[in-house]
Amino acid sequence: MITDNHGRRVNYLRLAVTDRCNLRCFYCMPEDGLNWLSRAELMTYEEMLHSCALLVKMGIEKIRITGGEPFVRKDIMKLLSGLSKLDGLKELSMTTNGVLTAPHVAEMKALGIKSVNLSLDTLDANRFFTITRRDEFTNVMATLDELLKHNIEVKINTVVMDGKNTQDILPLVELTKDLPVSVRFIEEMPFNGDEASNRGLQWNYVRILEEIKDKFPSIQKLTDPAYSTSYNYHIPGHKGSVGIIAAYSRTFCGTCNRIRVTPQGTLKNCLYDDGVLNIKDLMRSGLSDNELEKNLLNAFNHRVKNGWVAERMRVEKTGVHESMATIGG
Ligand code: SAM
Ligand code: SF4
Fold first, then answer.
1. Among 199, 324, 326, 327, which is best to mutate for testing ligand 1, by the most ligand atoms less than 8 A from CB?
2. For 59-178, where are the alpha helices, taking DSSP H only?
3. How much is the pTM?
4. Per residue in 237-268, pLDDT tens?
5. Atom of ligand 2 nearest to the CA of 68
6. Other beta carbons less than 10 A from residue 198's beta carbon
7. Domain covering 2-327 assigned CATH 3.20.20.70 in the classification
8. Is 159 within 8 Å of 183 (Cβ atoms)?
9. Is 98 touching ligand 2 by the criterion CB < 6 Å?
10. pLDDT digits 0-9 by tens, 225-235
């Protein structure tokens, strides 16, 4: 079991397997994409499996595969298959944009993947194109159908953006009437791959909730599961639920149980830090598992208290300007 220097349990890893993506969501990356990592900079699947096995042995119980878009990395199902066999791993899940996902859903189910986060910011095909700069709405909806058909728990991630999709908040809440999905509205964060990106937050979690309450006054607060990053709600008579994630306001740091590993192997103790060590480099330098474990434990003993402190302590003092595609969300 891993416990950090603030007494918080660390049992959840988010592993980003690539920075590449087949969409260009404007809140995540510029239209021309990023300076993609070279193959040599990426962790290999063998390195990912090796480090995940070690982390699971140390106390990680849940792994979420993310990116970039996980399905644009070749043979991603091989990695998932390897991870699904790790002794001690209690939960394997994914975050995907759904463009290429539908044909893999049956195999995901067979591997024991019970829950998928599907990113969907609008139910309108034209707005989808404006936000993602790609015409892929139909494929994403096909993935949603396929996930539901296979009884995989679906959490829809919706980034709320002033002037872009706030008219979609209520239709997305309506979706929970007939579908057993959890629609989670996320405050927009400044990770869009642009230095001059921090435009300030227009729609915080309070405003999002007010918008929903106005139309659905009977909405009820649910008890949030331990370590939940979302405030969760239910509208009587609806099959699904609604969540709000205060990702910019950072209200959940006190119970943060998660670490992140980027596609190039950088360990992040916090979404807002700029990396505390590089697992891939340590492995490639020939470090033994024992030594690697010591380095990891030392990093977990120096976790910052919250995302505000992490942001202040960044080595690069120019503020956050990386893309969420290199962090994984
Ligand atoms: N490509 C996959 C996808 O979109 O689901 C996985 C990676 S994506 C970086 C993970 C999550 O981060 C997505 O749900 C996305 O909406 C969210 N995200 C990306 N940029 C964001 C930002 N600037 N603010 C808030 N959430 C963001
Ligand atoms: Fe790609 Fe996901 Fe970023 Fe959109 S949010 S550009 S789908 S990585």
1. 324
2. 76-84, 105-110, 125-132, 137-149, 169-178
3. 0.94
4. 999 999 999 988 888 888 899 999 999 999 99
5. 8
6. 15
7. yes
8. no
9. no
10. 888 889 999 99
